[in-house]
Amino acid sequence: MDRTCVKNNRNKTKSGENGEKRDGTFHLQNPHLERMDEDVLYHLGLNTTSHNFVEMFGDVKFVCMGGTANRMETFAYYLLDVLGLKLPTGTTLIDISRNSHRYSMYKVGPVLSISHGMGVPSIGILLHEIMKLLKYAKVKDPVLFRIGTCGGIGVEGGTIVISEDAVDGLGSSYFQVPVLGKIVRRPAVFDKELIEELKDCVDPKDSYKTVTGITLCADDFYEGQGRLDGAFCDYTEAEKMEYLHKLKDQGVVNFEMEALVFAALTHHAGIRAADVCVACLDRLKGDQV
Amino acid sequence: MDRTCVKNNRNKTKSGENGEKRDGTFHLQNPHLERMDEDVLYHLGLNTTSHNFVEMFGDVKFVCMGGTANRMETFAYYLLDVLGLKLPTGTTLIDISRNSHRYSMYKVGPVLSISHGMGVPSIGILLHEIMKLLKYAKVKDPVLFRIGTCGGIGVEGGTIVISEDAVDGLGSSYFQVPVLGKIVRRPAVFDKELIEELKDCVDPKDSYKTVTGITLCADDFYEGQGRLDGAFCDYTEAEKMEYLHKLKDQGVVNFEMEALVFAALTHHAGIRAADVCVACLDRLKGDQV
Question: What is the CA radius of gyration of chain B?
Answer without folding.
Answer: 19
